[in-house]
């Protein structure tokens, strides 16, 4: 998956437009990135990519780029 | 009307899958409005029935830090009208079962015909939020007849 595809995937999770997202977009700038959004992200990474986040992973994810980094670390980004 | 939207559990594999049923009798007051002269079970109640069945499947598992609560409804579909007094069979298969969240593929059928389906997302509310003496009568009834599965 390319970074552009990944951003589109993230936008779908948070029910927003991919045009609104860059690597630097912080959690606070995305309305649906609330506590339910975090759980939705965890479930989607798990079901779509087999990535199971640890508590430390979750604490460390503060921007879209952090999500991309997790995906890259798990070999899901080209 | 009580908000217990599962009458009976027929099959239960805790944390994995469940088959349950619910019948809404014609005398329920909601049918006066939904709809006048054309009483049908509201889709929101069908969704809640599936959620309550799936939630009981998760609660029966006993491995979560709280009680399963519906967090999100993904892609619900309603295919057929459901009339009062029809038995609604509720099927839920847990597709993800993690400590902090769970997902379930659910469907309901009447007389063997699928009437609706939904993918449901659950979160868990801490047990101490609820009345300490609360017991789930539907799960208790199931465990009475299936004592080997009782927690």
Structure description:
The complex is a heterodimer of chains A (78) and B (151). The longest helix of chain A has 15 residues, at 35-49. Chain A has helices spanning 3-13, 35-49, 55-60, 64-73. Chain A has 78 residues and is an all-alpha fold. In chain A, helix 1 (3-13) crosses helix 4. The model of chain B has no long low-confidence stretch (mean pLDDT 95). Chain B has a 6-stranded antiparallel beta sheet. Chain B contains 2 helices and 6 strands. In chain B, 19% of the residues lie in helices and 40% in strands. Chain B is α+β, with helices and mostly antiparallel strands. Chain B has helices at 43-61, 137-145; strands at 8-13, 17-23, 66-78, 87-97, 101-110, 113-126. The two termini of chain B are 29 Å apart. Chain A binds chain B through residues 36, 39-40, 42-43, 46-47, 52, and chain B through 71-72, 95-96, 98, 100-101, 103, 121, 123.
Give a short overview:
Chain A is mainly α. Chain A has helices at residues 3-13, 35-49, 55-60, 64-73. Chain B has helices at 43-61, 137-145, and strands at 8-13, 17-23, 66-78, 87-97, 101-110, 113-126.
Which helices and strands appear, and what pairs or packs with what?
The complex is a heterodimer of chains A (78) and B (151).
Chain A: H1 3-13, H2 35-49, H3 55-60, H4 64-73
Chain B: E1 8-13, E2 17-23, H1 43-61, E3 66-78, E4 87-97, E5 101-110, E6 113-126, H2 137-145
Antiparallel strand pairs in B: 1-2, 2-4, 3-6, 4-5, 5-6
Give the N-terminus to C-terminus distance of chain B in angstroms.
Answer: 29 Å
What is the H/E order of chain A? Answer: HHHH
Poorly predicted ranges of chain B: none
Number of strands of chain B: 6
Mean pLDDT score of chain A, rounded? 94
Q: What is the 3D shape of chain A?
A: globular
The 3D shape of chain B can be described as globular
**How far is the first residue's CA from the last residue's CA of chain A?**
6 Å
- pLDDT averaged residue by residue of chain B: 95
What's the story with the biggest beta sheet of chain A?
none
Helix and strand composition category of chain B: alpha+beta
Q: How much β-strand is present in the residues of chain A?
A: under 5%
Stretches of chain A where pLDDT falls below 50 for ≥5 residues?
Answer: none
Helix proportion of chain B: 10-25%
Strand order of the main beta sheet of chain B, please?
1-2-4-5-6-3
The number of helical segments of chain B is: 2
